[in-house]
């Protein structure tokens, strides 16, 4: 069957859009998982992206071969029916709470722009719901448009900083971890696996050839790896400033005009949006098995319930969500990577 290369690009951009949330775009994830380990952390990005690529390929392959409609069916293949049902509920909880964090993050972003928290939450909810009218094709088209813009801005910021500060040496601060970096690389590869599972489990029907799967996996890992490496290298030159910024990205643009700072803030909001859209997409496809109504209505109900709850606060929600997701993500990454070697796969 003929390979659709453009389809590979759209799937690859959807993978990036699901992964490149506000934590990545702000530089906080890059610093915590890589930069904080010192000058030799760059090589660990390669390990993280390799694992990330392989996990994406495995999920896409299962979705394509088995014709899965949502993540629960992937879990059944990877973990078995009984364990899959149990983890189905955990993934559902994670996606709901993660979406809640994204809505709250949008509200917090609007507050930083001297706007209203509830307005920010509502804008996010409405923007996500609009994508649901177009199902997976709409999500892929949105990411294909937004992700190149987002990554281009981030790459430009890093390159501009490096060219403007060629003589600034890489520094090691007192906060640099003495632990080996490779476990952190594995943890990072697992960090977004649930959101990826939720989205990629619905993509199988869009694939026509296995080469599209590998192309999408390599493209997405390469794109994320390039941005992560440039970001990490840039942040290592301003190690002494990281503690002064909750968003490390602003340490690289502290001399920029207000217009550029606003543009970068908009990129951060878009990063929240693409991840939120992926999470809600995965949720509605899963719940459509139980609710025989249009998917966009399911999404509207979810967002209508979650938006008022976003007042719990962004930081409070993150503190609850991250410990919950850590163990679950690592376990699922392990099982996904082991699946090709499983004797029970059919």
UniProtKB/TrEMBL annotation:
<keyword id="KW-0812">Transmembrane</keyword>
<keyword id="KW-0472">Membrane</keyword>
<feature type="transmembrane region" description="Helical">
    <location>
        <begin position="116"/>
        <end position="134"/>
    </location>
</feature>
<feature type="transmembrane region" description="Helical">
    <location>
        <begin position="213"/>
        <end position="231"/>
    </location>
</feature>
<feature type="transmembrane region" description="Helical">
    <location>
        <begin position="141"/>
        <end position="162"/>
    </location>
</feature>
<dbReference type="InterPro" id="IPR038728">
    <property type="entry name" value="YkvI-like"/>
</dbReference>
<protein>
    <recommendedName>
        <fullName>Membrane protein YkvI</fullName>
    </recommendedName>
</protein>
<feature type="transmembrane region" description="Helical">
    <location>
        <begin position="296"/>
        <end position="314"/>
    </location>
</feature>
<feature type="transmembrane region" description="Helical">
    <location>
        <begin position="259"/>
        <end position="284"/>
    </location>
</feature>
<feature type="transmembrane region" description="Helical">
    <location>
        <begin position="182"/>
        <end position="201"/>
    </location>
</feature>
<keyword id="KW-1133">Transmembrane helix</keyword>
<feature type="transmembrane region" description="Helical">
    <location>
        <begin position="90"/>
        <end position="110"/>
    </location>
</feature>
<feature type="transmembrane region" description="Helical">
    <location>
        <begin position="12"/>
        <end position="31"/>
    </location>
</feature>
<feature type="transmembrane region" description="Helical">
    <location>
        <begin position="43"/>
        <end position="64"/>
    </location>
</feature>
<feature type="transmembrane region" description="Helical">
    <location>
        <begin position="320"/>
        <end position="341"/>
    </location>
</feature>
């Amino acid at each position: 069957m003929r390979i659709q290369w453009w389809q590979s690009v759209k799937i690859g951009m959807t993978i990036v859009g699901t992964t490149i949330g506000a934590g990545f775009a702000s530089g906080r994830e890059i610093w915590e998982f890589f930069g904080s380990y010192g000058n030799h952390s760059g090589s660990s990005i390669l390990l993280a992206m390799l694992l990330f690529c392989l996990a994406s390929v495995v999920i896409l392959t299962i979705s394509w071969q088995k014709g899965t409609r949502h993540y629960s069916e992937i879990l059944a293949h990877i973990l078995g029916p009984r364990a899959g049902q149990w983890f189905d509920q955990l993934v559902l909880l994670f996606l709901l709470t993660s979406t809640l964090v994204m809505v709250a993050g949008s509200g917090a972003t609007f507050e930083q722009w001297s706007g209203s928290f509830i307005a920010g939450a509502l804008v996010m909810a409405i923007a996500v719901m609009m994508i649901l009218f177009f199902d997976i094709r709409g999500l892929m088209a949105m990411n294909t448009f937004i992700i190149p813009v987002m990554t281009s801005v981030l790459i430009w910021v890093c390159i501009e900083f490096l060219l403007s500060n060629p003589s600034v040496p890489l520094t090691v601060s007192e906060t640099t971890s003495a632990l080996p970096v490779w476990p952190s690389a594995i943890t990072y590869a697992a960090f977004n696996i649930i959101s990826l599972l939720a989205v990629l489990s619905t993509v199988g029907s869009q694939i026509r050839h296995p080469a599209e799967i590998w192309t999408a996996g390599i493209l997405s890992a390469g794109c994320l790896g390039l941005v992560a490496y440039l970001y990490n290298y840039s942040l290592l030159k301003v190690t002494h400033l990281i503690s002064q910024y909750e968003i490390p990205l602003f340490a690289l643009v502290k001399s920029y005009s207000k217009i550029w700072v606003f543009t970068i803030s908009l990129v951060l909001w878009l990063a929240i949006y693409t991840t939120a859209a992926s999470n809600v997409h995965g949720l509605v496809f899963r719940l459509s098995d139980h609710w025989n109504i249009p998917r966009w209505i399911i999404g509207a109900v979810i967002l209508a319930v979650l938006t008022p709850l976003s007042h719990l606060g962004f930081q409070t929600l993150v503190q609850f969500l991250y410990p919950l997701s850590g163990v679950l993500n690592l376990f699922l990454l392990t099982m996904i990577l082991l699946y090709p070697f499983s004797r029970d796969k059919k």
